[in-house]
């Protein structure tokens, strides 16, 4: 049978003093004698009493809770973003409550209600792949709870956000492939209503135009960016009369799917086809060959999102003007895209 937790009322009853006296003794209030404090703490330890800091905070109008919602915590990216969030939030005295939308807007809406019910003091969000409108976030705004987006946001929304310069990342990757002698470069893109995939594709298009290379619709394939999508995408490309000599994928997952399909067919990377992905997932340095990718400054993104939340929270005199922090990507060149690789 589970042991019932001792309450502050239990302590007061056993000691024959009031609940308020016990409460002040536990908080080391100067109005309570040292002898009473010792009696209270001794019994509290014997009964394994745990103070309810959340309830105490709510009585003071604060929960010290920061809500965080991510699409998933698979892989390396969101795990490291959350690490960055927790590092800064903890130093600022906040506990982090994490939810996953599992790439489902319905679940995302439920998570918002859950976080609001928990009386969080702020919400940090990276949108699900299926989110196409902002309506479920209006309740957060109406309650004047600081709301910060990171990585994934909806185009056309004037919101506070921390994002990577994904367009620059897409441009750098494609220019690198061009510099390796690739002239027919395909692109695996994600849902275009999300900023990250739209901007990565735009960077790809910028690089082709700048280099005087044609933009061919048959080489641009859109999917949900999973490993299986990379397999299917590569199958489609290899059926073309004139297959590409390189692929820039907006996700490492679909890039690895493409790599698997090429290997299954006995084609060599990068000799037959060069590959570049995006996100610098941990597995990119474990593949054979290792995968060229773009680092997204994961921990820095999480840390910046919390700092932006804290700035919004302190800004109470006038309405806070939405602010966007833009982080710079880093292209990590590995053997999958180097035509000089053996």
Short structural description:
This protein has helices spanning 8-15, 19-26, 34-46, 53-59, 77-91, 105-117, 138-142, 166-179, 195-210, 227-238, 252-264, 298-314; strands at 65-70, 95-100, 122-125, 147-150, 160-164, 185-189, 220-222, 246-249, 274-276, 293-295, 324-327, 330-332. The protein has 342 residues and is an alpha/beta fold.
Report Rg: 26 Å
Structural class: alpha/beta
The SSE string, one letter per element, is HHHHEHEHEHEEHEHEHEHEEHEE
- Form type: elongated
- The helical percent reads 40-55%
Poorly predicted residue ranges = none
Blueprint (SSEs and pairs):
Layout: H1 8-15, H2 19-26, H3 34-46, H4 53-59, E1 65-70, H5 77-91, E2 95-100, H6 105-117, E3 122-125, H7 138-142, E4 147-150, E5 160-164, H8 166-179, E6 185-189, H9 195-210, E7 220-222, H10 227-238, E8 246-249, H11 252-264, E9 274-276, E10 293-295, H12 298-314, E11 324-327, E12 330-332
Parallel strand pairs: 1-2, 1-3, 3-4, 4-5, 5-11, 6-7, 6-8, 8-9
Antiparallel strand pairs: 10-12
Question: Descriptors for this entry?
Answer:
342 residues; 12 helices
Describe the structure.
The chain is an alpha/beta fold. 41% of the residues lie in helices and 15% in strands. It has twelve helices and twelve strands. Strands 2-1-3-4-5-11 form a six-stranded parallel β-sheet, sandwiched between helices. Helix 7 links the parallel strand 3 and strand 4.
């Amino acid at each position: 049978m589970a042991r019932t937790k001792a309450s502050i009322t239990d302590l007061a009853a056993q000691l024959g003093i009031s609940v308020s006296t016990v409460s002040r003794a536990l908080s080391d209030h100067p109005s309570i004698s040292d002898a009473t404090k010792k009696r209270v703490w001794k019994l509290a330890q014997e009964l394994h009493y745990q103070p309810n800091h959340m309830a105490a905070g709510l009585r003071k109008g604060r929960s010290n809770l920061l809500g965080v919602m991510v699409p998933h915590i698979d892989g390396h990216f969101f795990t490291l973003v959350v690490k960055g969030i927790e590092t800064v939030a903890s130093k600022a005295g906040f506990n982090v409550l994490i939810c996953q939308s599992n790439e489902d807007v319905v679940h995302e809406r439920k998570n918002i209600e859950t976080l609001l019910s928990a009386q969080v003091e702020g919400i940090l969000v990276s949108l699900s792949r299926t989110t196409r409108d902002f309506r479920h976030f209006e309740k957060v705004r109406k309650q004047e709870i600081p709301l910060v987006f990171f990585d994934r946001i909806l185009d056309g929304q004037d919101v506070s956000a921390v994002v990577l310069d994904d367009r620059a990342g897409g441009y750098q990757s494609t220019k690198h492939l061009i510099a390796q002698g690739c002239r027919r470069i395909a692109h695996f893109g994600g849902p275009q209503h999300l900023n990250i995939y739209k901007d990565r594709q735009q960077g790809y298009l910028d690089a082709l135009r700048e280099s005087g290379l044609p933009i061919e619709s048959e080489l641009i394939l859109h999917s949900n960016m999973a490993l299986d999508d990379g397999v299917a995408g590569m199958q489609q490309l290899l059926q073309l009369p004139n297959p590409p000599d390189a692929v820039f994928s907006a996700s490492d997952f679909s890039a690895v799917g493409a790599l698997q399909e090429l290997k299954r067919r006995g084609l060599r990377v990068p000799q037959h086809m060069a590959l570049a992905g995006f996100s610098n997932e941990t597995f990119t340095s474990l593949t054979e060959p290792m995968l060229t990718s773009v680092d997204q400054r994961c921990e820095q993104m999480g840390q910046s999102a919390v700092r932006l939340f804290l700035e919004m929270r302190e800004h109470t005199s006038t309405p806070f003007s939405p602010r966007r922090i833009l982080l710079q990507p880093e292209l990590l060149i590995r053997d999958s895209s180097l035509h000089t690789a053996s």
